[in-house]
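Two folds, back to back.
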Amino acid sequence: MPSPQPATVAAHPVVPVGPLPRNPGGALDLDWVASLRVDRSAAERRAATLTTRRSVKQAAQAAWLLKAITLIDLTTLAGDDTPARVRRLSAKARRPVRPELLEALGMADVRITTGAVCVYHAMVPTAVAALEGSGVPVAAVSTGFPAGLTPLATRLAEIRASVEAGAEEIDVVINRHQALAGDWQALYDEIARFREACGPAHLKVILGTGDLGTLRTVARAALVAMLAGADFVKTSTGKEGVNATLPVSLTMARTVRDYAERTGVAVGFKPAGGIRTAKDALAWMILMREELGRRWLEPDLFRFGASGLLGDIERQLEHHVTGRYAALHKQPLA
């Protein structure tokens, strides 16, 4: 992987508009994996420029924030989740912005929903029923989330059960020790089994980047996941001490770009954990726009894993319309 350069943005992969084919994956290429290198200092410098060299203001900012809403995997992964909470979250996913705000923004006739609703397996049937007819998919976290250390047969059974219950996307978590030990064959084999168990459901592979130590390990794990058939690569479970960061996301985005250039296959990217503000959302969207191109600002190739982000975006939209900030607790979310 080329070292990130602070002032250089490479050509973007050419990706067609419209529905994309699934990532078929390919044979594990250990030479390719071993060739990946990342200069951490350069990555950090490049990431720092994303919020200093670019800004989005006024009407353009409102438009970007409305787009950001469509990229959110609205998530609840709490031990005290209840069917009532999931139904409220699903109702918000259907109508994430208050009608009076959309009318004031001139968007009353535009249908806006979140990208998905993400829940534990036990809540999949509730979410599927609540979202019926909306077009909003249900994503289920599986494979012993968040540690990924349950027996393989159990993890595979959980994937199949979630798909059978109606989940259209499966967020799986890798065994981090395989990546830390450089056992790429074992990691590849497990992810390939996950992909097979998913059947028609899209596979989103969580790397747990906060546990992986180096950006080089992050890049290599992301590449192995894509070679094994991942439709998305995702930074974090949201449960690690360090979750999504811009240098990590830059590293993963450039690995996605490398994969697209070599194979012609576009794979999605999902940062998750710690993305809570509209300002955060804009930074990650700028990263995707600059590093991968406009096509990676659509929900089939980019998602935010977030629970609190939507409330702050709606608050910023209200400020754009009225010139005043509403209290965060006044934003209706679950």
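---
second:
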Amino acid sequence: MTMGHLGARVLLAPMEGLLDHTLRDMLTRVGGVDLCVSEFIRVTNTVLPRRAFIRVAPELLNNSRTVAGVPVRVQLLGSDPDYLAANAAALAELQPAGIDLNFGCPAKTVNQHRGGAVLLDEPELVGQIVAAVRRAVPAHIPVSAKMRLGFNDDSRAEDCALAIEAAGASDLVVHARTKAHGYRPPAYWDRIADLRQHVRLPMVANGEIWTLADALRCREVTGCERLMIGRGMVADPGLALAITQHDALFDSRLTGEGVTWSHIVVLMRLFWQGISLRVAPRHRAGRLKQWLNYLRRVYPEAQEAFDQLRLMHDPAQIAQWLDAQALPAA
């Protein structure tokens, strides 16, 4: 059963440098995720080759779906409507499950090059970008957008949301913080509720959803049934499944006990196999420790694992350690 059948959806967020193809694969295997969005593909003053899209979203070679069958929208980032439209048209030939436009990235380097959240100070340009991409892409391919509440403040949030709606976007994800807020709590969910008073565009709430209780409260405050979750899913791979099970008519038979550490170990071994194919040896240990660092929020065993691996950098040693975790206790 998918979230779509329940009238609500859980989306897996794009997170540059963290939530890439390999981790999307792991998290969607657990269940509960209805849709993913890839990390951004930066567009400047050229039309990218086919391989550039596939490098970030190799799911394009699998009908734009993860191994578990979850659709993946591909995200573009830039500030030139014409070049974004041309790249969207090229991407559309690969039949993505959708094209998403990034108006939320808070990274200083990105913003300095007029990409991501800095565009929220220019609602007219935001609308021009969405309209140009919508015109360039076949009607059957959704064009969505992801925005923050603003750059330095949220005074133009309504203007940006209205511009995105008027330009023909299929739906809008709102990360309930400004660029200036970064990722510091809280997320200002009430401002998403404000935006919903001005636009009829289907809206997805994003920001500070770490637990099932957070998800339910976010829905209550924002009025959004659809949620996008990033770091919360990295820390708790069973979170989307818990939300899905809660929504399934509150059927107590479906609640279970969450995803066990034994299941996480299986996923970590698969994750290691995946990054070993795609990541340079010197960076592999860092990728695994990065995930473990998030898992420590939920799993006590992850703290022990993190401590054991803290000073370990050799891929062969780490592979050996992962194999040992899968062995039954003596």
